Amino acid sequence: MIIDYRDVRKHDGVLAKHEQVLVPEVAKTHTQVENVSPLDVRVNAQLVNHLCKVEGTVKYSVTYLCTRCLESFVAHQETELFEEFTEDKNQVTEEVHHAPDGIAVLDPWIEQSLNLDLEFFPVCRSDCRGLCPVCGINRNEHECNCDVRTVDPRLGVLSDLLSTDESE
Ligand SMILES: [Zn+2]
Ligand SMILES: [Zn+2]
Q1: What is the pLDDT of residues 101-149, one digit of tens each?
Q2: Where are the domains of the chain?
Q3: How far is ligand 1, taken at its centre, from the CA of residue 81, in Å?
Q4: Residue 32: nearest ligand to its CA?
């Protein structure tokens, strides 16, 4: 998605734009993400002197793999976009990006806000019971009779220390 300063000027300095943006690479860089739908991006671009201020929303659907039960599920998410661009290379800062020849390319910034918006440990539902650590059955769907009492490794060390103390 690009914002051309000339288009914004044609619209008296304020331009609304609505586009579908494809992000085929995003799912590949997140193991917990199976698929990301085309992004529905709506922005308003405003020219203030040499600064182009772009703000808008990014709506999309994402297919996650639940980190507890490994089943896939779909979530609908929305994130916001605030970016500033300048034609003048000397005015570029950490917050103000360069728009050479008055062409602001939004895609890397859209992708960045998407990466920040994606869940790192998605769960299909808050009470997902996950997989049995012994037999691997999906405990949302089936019961099993495995003994899943596990000792926290730190407590294991502690009980070793205690038993050493007792023998002294
Ligand atoms: Zn789950
Ligand atoms: Zn089991």
Answers
A1: 999 999 999 999 999 999 999 999 999 999 999 999 999 999 999 987 7
A2: 2-117, 129-168
A3: 30
A4: 1
- The neighbour count for residue 154, using CB atoms within 10 Å, is 7
Task: Identify the nearest ligand to the CA of 147 by its number.
Answer: 2
Which of 96, 71, 101, 70 has its CA nearest to residue 85? 96
Segment 60-77, tens digit of pLDDT: 999 999 999 999 999 999
Compute CA distances 32 → 12, 19, 63, 72, whole Å.
44, 26, 9, 9
CA of residue 123 to ligand 1 center, whole Å: 5
Query: Is-contact 35 9, C-beta < 8 A?
Result: no
Q: How does residue 154 score in pLDDT terms, banded at 50, 70 and 90?
A: low
pLDDT score recorded for residue 168: 45
Distance CA 85, CA 93 (A): 10
Residue 122 CA to ligand 1 center (angstroms) comes to: 8
Dig out the tokens for 90 from the structure.
Answer: 């000397």
pTM of the predicted model over 0.85: no
Tokens for 38?
């085309």
| Summary mean pLDDT of the chain | 90
How remote is the CA of residue 86 from the centroid of ligand 2, in Å?
59
